[in-house]
Amino acid sequence: MSPLIAPSILAADFANLQTEVEMLNRSAADYIHVDIMDGVFVPNISFGIPVTEAIQRHAKKPLDVHLMIVNPDPYLEAFRRAGAENISVHYEACPHLHRTVQAIHGLGAKAGVAINPHTSVSLLEEIIAEIDLVCMMSVNPGFGGQKFIENTYSKVSRLKDLILKKGAATKIEIDGGVNEQNAQKLVSEGADILVAGSFVFSSADPVATIARLKSS
Q1: Residue 6, φ and ψ in degrees, nearest 5
Q2: Which residue is catalytic, options 30, 38, 132, 175?
Q3: 112 is in an annotated binding site
Q4: Which NCBIfam families match (predicted)?
Q5: Least confident of 20-29, 133-142, 178-187
Q6: Ordered structural domains, the chain, with CATH
Q7: pLDDT digits (tens, 9 = 90+) for 66-119
Q8: DSSP secondary structure string, 6-28?
Q9: Of the listed 35, 64, 132, 192, which one is catalytic?
Q10: 176 annotated as belonging to a binding site for a ligand
């Protein structure tokens, strides 16, 4: 089965954002991945609600919003109004994770939980059946263009085993360093959604690159 592809708009040309979104509309992408960074939870600042709204105005693909921020709860409704269909929060940033997941579902969005490279998948055992996706970071969050962490393969396999054990329908999303060299192996280990930023937007033909990832 082909993976779902979610190009990360963080790697796009921000001076031509509408053109970049329209290119993704024409492509085989399934989502537009939107990375929100606050400069506190991660050492970088990206953009927020107004830019998300601007992307949504032109997007024909659903927005997959990844909140790399501390205390995401006060912003969930605003991002949902801005067009987020998936909202992922970080396990490490949510002391009351189940409440946050309930709040996302209450807004009519799909709820995801993101985990950093050092966070064990076993920590998701009590919530895995309640969430729609796990966004597994395969680089340290905060910057695009980083090298893929090889331990991710075995981590995907362990997470897939947990999902099956719990009888959950949770999808596994891989975020960071995804390219044509590792995509097929990630899918074979159990990945359902591949996020690709620099690999897509720095290629000579992003539409063709997305199509090749889709055939992984």
Answers
A1: -130, 85
A2: 175
A3: no
A4: PRK05581.1-4 (NF004076), rpe (TIGR01163)
A5: 133-142
A6: 4-214 (3.20.20.70)
A7: 999 999 999 999 999 999 999 999 999 999 999 999 999 999 999 999 999 999
A8: EEBGGGS-GGGHHHHHHHHHHSS
A9: 35
A10: yes
